[in-house]
Amino acid sequence: MTPRSFLLTPELADYVRASSEPPDPVVTDLLAETAAMADRGEAPPTFQIAPEQGTFMQLLTAALGARTAIEIGTFTGFSALCLARGLPADGRLLCLDRSEEWTAVARRYWEAAGVADRIELRLGEALDLLRALPVEETFDLAFVDADKGGYPAYVDELHPRMTPNGVVLLDNMLRQGRVLDPQTDDDRVLVALNEALATDPRWETVLLPLADGLTLLRKR
């Protein structure tokens, strides 16, 4: 099943996609292979971002003029593919993930899309890998779509590593609407984070009702 915003009916989701730039064959094949993996129980279906979110992220990356980006949580590589396509030819994207199996799929499609030379993949625990990076203003853009309990730490560790006006994107910030009635520890972590970010002087913050909720943070 193609992921969509829980705020949209299937019909509206189809309309949104029909009114946006269509996916090319590489993206179509990647989404199809990931969906097949989910159908076989080899991957969680909720890990995949919606196609329109990927299109938005690619457009945003290009519009910001980002040259260096970091992704925390890569899965089968669709979001990284979109970010890499939004970078200039000499841009660089660093991906942090723990799964060699899922990122092997990603590597194949990055090669097929001709962006593999822009992407470096490091495997391990994301927070450890992030903390091992120099505490320098390095990244123009960051995308976080990993373990939800780790989001507050990721935000804190990213801040000194973002360039001035750098943008951080946080995925799944509406938790399928459960932010209004938290059911799990992860829900409660993100509810608390949403409240904290709204008044955090380090960031200019907006939570968009895109897909499962996408927060944009601009480093002040």
Give the key terms.
220 residues; 7-stranded mixed β-sheet; globular; alpha/beta; Rossmann fold; 40% helix
Short description:
The chain has 220 residues and is an alpha/beta fold.
Describe the structure in your own words.
With 220 residues, the protein is α/β, with parallel strands linked by helices. The protein has one domain: Rossmann fold, CATH 3.40.50. Helix content is 40%, strand content 20%. The protein contains eight helices and seven strands; from the N terminus they run H-H-H-E-H-E-H-E-H-E-H-E-H-E-E. The chain has a seven-stranded mixed β-sheet with strand order 3-2-1-4-5-7-6, with helices on both faces.
Q: Given the C-alpha coordinates, what overall shape results? A: globular
Query: Could you tell me the number of beta strands?
Result: 7
In spatial order, strands of the major sheet run 3-2-1-4-5-7-6
Runs in which pLDDT lies below 50 for 5 or more consecutive residues are: none
CATH hierarchy: architecture: 3-Layer(aba) Sandwich
Determine the fraction of residues in helical runs and give it as a percent range.
40-55%
Instruction: Kindly report the CATH topology.
Output: Rossmann fold
